[in-house]
Fold this protein.
Amino acid sequence: MITQILNGLVYGGLLYILSVGLVLIFGLRRVVNFAHGSLFMIGAYIGYSVTARAGFLPGLVSAVVVMAAFGVLLDVGVFRPLQRHDPLLTVLVTFGILMVLEDVARSVWGKDYITVAVPAGLDGNASLFGVAFPIYRLMVIALSLLTVSVLAIWLKRSAIGLYVRASSADPLVTAMQGVNTDRVSAMVVAIGAGLAGMSGVIAAPLMALSPSMGSYILVDCFIVVVVGGLGSFVGAFVAAMFIGQIHNFGIVYLPWAASSIPFVIMIAVLIWRPTGLSGKAAT
Amino acid sequence: MTTTRLRGPHAGPWGPIPAAAFLALLSGLVGIGLPFVITAPTAMTLMTQGTINAILATSVGYLIRQSGFVSFGQASFFGLGAYVTALLIKSAALPFAVAVLLGVLLPTLFGFLISLVIVRVSGVAFSMLTLAVAQVFYEIVVKWRDLAGGDDGLSVTLPATFIGIPSSVFQTPTTMFAICWITLTLILFLMYCLSRSRFGMLCSAIRDNEERARFIGYGTLLPRAVIFAISSASGAIGGVLFCLYNGFVSPDILHWTMSGAALVMAIVGGAEFVVGPALGALVYLGVKDALGNITEHWQAIVGIALIIVTVGWPTGIAGLFNTLWKRVRAARPA
Amino acid sequence: MSQIALRGVGLTRRYGGFTALRGVDLSVPAGEIRGLIGPNGAGKSTLIDVLSGRAAHWSGQVFVGDTDVSRHSVQKRRRSGLARSFQRTSIFPSLTVRHQLELAAQSGADVDEVLLQLNLDAMQQVYAAELSYGDQRRLDLALALIGRPRVLLLDEPAAGLTVQESLTLARLLRDLVKNWGITVLIVEHDMEVVFSICDRITVLNLGELLVEGTADEVRTSPKVISAYLGRSAA
């Protein structure tokens, strides 16, 4: 039981780190990045390749850096030019990018599943509440909590954080305040993409690598973001934790329906509250 | 007002309904006549598959055109149509014709019910949800081995006759092509007529400006749900035909990549026009067949094509023809 | 049959810790053209939003005639005879002028008359996206006027129009609503328009009712003057 809950926290934490990127990008550019899962996937593969040659930490860092750089490219090349147009154009373009990236992954790493070992030093179990629980998974939980805290502090205290919050509430007025929208956006999107890459590397030992792993988790990520309320960090956190637990209990107790449960929850929430838990209006 | 041309028909070169009826008739004749002209069986097989895909692409494009919603999950209804038909035939509990009918009706009903929930969210959230729905369906079918055969799929032997007609017509490329093509023509014609009706106008208005539609006195939930149901019905019809033709169904027809491909066909073909998505499907299959031997990177090519059309030429292939047609007419002496 | 066509009782709206309206009471007799003015942030648009059903998180009651429409949806209010226009033009770009008016009309007869009265008949086959700004403003208005609603809420109908266009529109409006017996509540910044067509004027400030009276009473009211002068520094 405790193991179940802890595993739920692991998955929920992963989902949250990934969803934060999506929420950041949405808050700033008012677009949903359909390629977000692909960033997760490519990050995981890069992490895997670099780790094999140079160790886990370099693998993690390079994945984050490369994905962050890619995020800047995305912002400059896609989000910014399409800013004034229908957000669905960005959806379609990022969907196209998703297809291209999956093809790239297939070409470079092959389409077969690759299992990744837990990095040395983090393998082994710790004793928690009387049960043995993998240290690596504890690290994932810790990392997600760290992300929550750092994000919360950053949003509340820093100038850019203020900007992100203001922009999430009212992008037009914020842009009019004379802040260099484009430069800050590029940075924030880079952070979102970097986080996606990071969650990919971290997730790799927990799930097998495959070119389709991005789309797989993207779906849960979408459910988290829509249920939490598009644009809300708090909502995303609550939803991610919730979905994480449901996902895990589902796998253990109702394996054939496990993936359907988050979906049913989502339908239930949306019937009750079409704008998601946080109640913020999406455009 | 947004600057997109992604959705919203202004006016095509297509005249009013009698002209459309004439075109539909012509198209029907093509459907019957083509198999006599193209005799190579592989070509016919490809055309039949292309037409079935065109029906799915049309369902996706119709949703975009009439409601402005982009769905990444319409293959769910295609797949449901196929699976429901397959399972009902296998169970032999109901007559063949009823199985086929339910194969269309049940997914439509399901689409209608689910749309009542998901059309309430914003356009982008809607797209996200359709991806989620598609994935969930796929997972259910894959995991439910006892019922649906899981990854291996289900093979189906058709009963001997379908309301008196030998059911071999469904599995012979020449006759099946005619059946599918005529079905596609009928679907397109009905969609066209509906879009020019008062209801169609209301849907266009809701798509343009949902808020103002309410402020002039119309509820917006039901019309959107009806459009979604029609789109689901169209997808389901495609699925039923798929099942009848192939005698085999497998989970990949439910996978979101199937929906994604249909979406690309619709956009590249030109969702703004009734015939655009169908055109896109035929082009897609043609190019895929041609390039399939040369490259393994078909998915990347499709992705790039989607990007190029979305930002460069949003009205798609049909839009290209439309523009050329207008230029030709303008150049003609009065 | 009530003589009061539009009534708001205790209208309050609070969101995010900010109170936009504080217990505003409003009563507009049938056939009157009532102006609604006030400095920026006074709550005028909010009041229109609350009355028309567009706002969430509000309390109080709204009556159209004797009917309590407080719980009615937007579309139900419209069918009870409460229509509104929009400050930011809100029309249907991909429909022709005629088609969208036909859609808005519950019966066909009205359309020709509205087209004529609002000088839109020459462009009835034009797609709304292709109209000039001024024509689009009039179309926005036409969509509200069609079907001769009992009560018409106008949110800055002259927004973005030139002085001449505004006055023409104002006169046109005045004649039309008086002929058709429509009760009007009009939010406007353009004082010329307000003073030229309104029978009475309600002044809001900081979400509260400040003064209500005829054009002269309002123009000379010390409270109104200080409210505008006091705010103009902000």
Summary: Residues 3-8+15-331 of chain B form one domain. Chain B has one domain: 3-8+15-331. Chain B touches chain C at residues 1, 8-11, 198, 201-202, 204-205, 207-209, 211-219 (CB under 8 Å).
